[in-house]
Structures are given as C-alpha cells and as structure tokens.
Amino acid sequence: MKNNSAQDYESGKNLAAGLVVQKGHQFTLTVPESESQLDQADNQEFETQRVLYVEDNLSNARLMTAIFRAQKHLELCVATTAGQGWEMVNLIDPSLVLLDCNLPDKPGLELLLEFKRDERLRSIPVIVVSADATAGQQQRMLEAGALAYVTKPFNIVKFWTVLGQFVNLAPTTAPSQFQATA
C-alpha cells in the first residue's frame, strides 16, 4: 500500500514524522531528544555501524530515518530499488540490511537470494520490513535467509528489540522513550 502524503516537522528538541497511510488513518512518531540524553549518548563508546534500508516508499524511508536519529552511532543508508540496494551493499559494507519485499525493479526475495549467493555478502544479517503480512511470504523470506520478519506498521518497541539482536543500541535511547500514536 502506497502512502498518499507525508510531512516531517521539528519542534524544539523533538522530531516528529507524520504519515497518512489512507484517508482517515494517520501515524505520528515522536522521538524525544533531551540534552541529558545527548550528553550520555556522546559519552558512550560505540563504533559507527551502517544499516542499509532497501525501501522504495519515500514516506517509509523518512519515518525509518526519524526512528534511527535516536541512535547516533547507527548510520541509515537508503536505497530505493533492488539495483541500488545491490550497489550500496557492496559499497558501504553494512552491519545489517533492512529489506522491503515489494520493490519497483525486482522482488525483495530475489535481492535476498542474490545476497545469500554472494560469498562476500551472505553473512550480512537481513531483516525484512514489509507490509506483506501473509504467512507464505514470511516463510519464503525466512527460508531464503532473512533472520527476522517485521510487518508494517510495526510496534517500535518490538522493532528495536529485533534490531538489537544484530546491532549495538545505545541504552539512552531505549525503545520505551519512543511514542507512537495512531
């Protein structure tokens, strides 16, 4: 399902991203960012980790970017096609790939299989983030080598829990500090 519109806005130290999925449905994410949280995060020693997000929907990419801002040591790189995803995974050496199933140039499943066939890339963990919640699609992606499958819209606390299995998360930006309203 494509999003009809999106708007991003900043207010003080809070970042919020509003997203209209269908007429009558709106999702807003607010990421609080206090000075004390920033000071604590700056004092943490975390190696920068790159996460590649292969997602063709600009609103979803903006929302994920807003979510990732709370983790200063995680660098989110976005590819909007499978072709760009293939190029970027070879250029940036990501610690993790977040992959949508429905991409404009080829299915996410095909890209996942290409990653797993390539000796240099097969060890990179892949988490599928997709609106396709069918059991068959989830099974195909997991059997092809995805390590987790998160359906959109997703619970942010559960998303960070899954993500934390594959990358280091700063404790100052624990999932409980995120608010999502529908």
The level-1 CATH class of the domain at 46-170: Alpha Beta
Strand content: 25-35%
Shape: globular
Compute the separation of the termini in Å: 17 Å
Q: Residue ranges: pLDDT <50 for 5 or more in a row? A: 1-22, 24-30, 32-41, 172-182
Overall mean pLDDT stands at 78
Structural class: alpha/beta
The sequence of SSEs as H and E is EEEHEHEHEHEHEHE
Summed up, the helix count is: 6
Largest sheet data: 5 strands, parallel
CATH homologous superfamily annotation of the domain at 46-170: Response regulator
CATH fold-level assignment of the domain at 46-170: Rossmann fold
Strand order of the largest sheet: 5-4-6-7-8
How much is the radius of gyration in Å?
Answer: 16 Å
Count of extended strands:
9
CATH architecture of the domain at 46-170: 3-Layer(aba) Sandwich
Q: Which range best describes the helical content: under 10%, 10-25%, 25-40%, 40-55%, 55-70% or over 70%?
A: 25-40%
Describe the structure.
- This protein has helices spanning 35-43, 58-68, 82-92, 108-117, 135-144, 156-163, and strands at 5-11, 14-22, 25-31, 49-54, 74-79, 96-99, 126-130, 148-151, 179-181.
- It is an alpha/beta fold and 182 residues long.
- It has a domain at 46-170: Rossmann fold (3-Layer(aba) Sandwich).
- Strand 7 (126-130), helix 5 and strand 8 form a beta-alpha-beta unit.
